[in-house]
Amino acid sequence: MLTQLYEKFQRKKQLEILKKHSQSSFENFKIGVSNHFTIYPKIKNLVLGRNINFRNYIHIIVQNNAELIIGDRVFLNNFCSINCLEKIEIGDNTLFGENVKLYDHNHQYHNSPNFEISHSEFSTAPIKIGKNCWLGSNVVVLKGVTIGDNCIIGAGCVVYKDVPTNSTIINKQDLTIIPR
């Protein structure tokens, strides 16, 4: 009973974080347990569609001047993560398997005179995922990628280049695009 009360309280607190910044309603928004939303105070935009379903342990960060747009009927399974420093857009009817990760940025690094990786400077490029897509478990989508409508991204793929509409990607020795 105590666990159920805590989970209800935690859900309410996370929804309040989203509602504070959202440009859209929360019609039929379902949220699981132990989700964590960090929405900075000076974001550019946060749009959440209708009938969104976030399972458990979802982690979303939207930093200042960033934009996150999630369409209608989007499903994020357990342990998904969206890290938005510039812009991430997810189209209607898109399904994420467990542990899908989206990163619209990389840490900046310098080669000379000594190799150095910055902890606080980033290079960014937007991510756009089309409508009616399915990203399988453990998919990682990197900055600057556009995935067209009606695409399937197989489990374990690291998507580092654009994927044309109506394509299927499978995890082989290289990133293989299979037209349907």
Task: Give a verbal description of the structure.
By secondary structure, the protein is mainly beta. It has one domain: UDP N-Acetylglucosamine Acyltransferase, domain 1, CATH 2.160.10. Helices cover 11% and strands 41% of the residues. It has 1 helix and 21 strands. Strands 1-4-7-10-15-18-20-21 form an 8-stranded mixed β-sheet, with no helix packed on it. It has a 6-stranded parallel β-sheet with strand order 2-5-8-11-16-19, covered by helices on one side. It has a 5-stranded parallel β-sheet with strand order 3-6-9-14-17, with no helix packed on it. Strand 20 and strand 21 (175-179) form a beta hairpin.
Task: Give the neighbour order of strands across the main sheet.
Answer: 1-4-7-10-15-18-20-21
Category by helix and strand content:
mainly beta
What is the number of beta strands? 21
CATH H-level superfamily: Hexapeptide repeat proteins
Mean pLDDT reading? 92
Which architecture would the CATH scheme give at its second level?
A: 3 Solenoid
SSE order, one letter for each helix or strand: HEEEEEEEEEEEEEEEEEEEEE
Biggest sheet statistics = 8 strands, mixed
Work out the strand percent: 35-45%
Annotation field: number of helices: 1
Mind telling me the C-alpha Rg? Answer: 17 Å
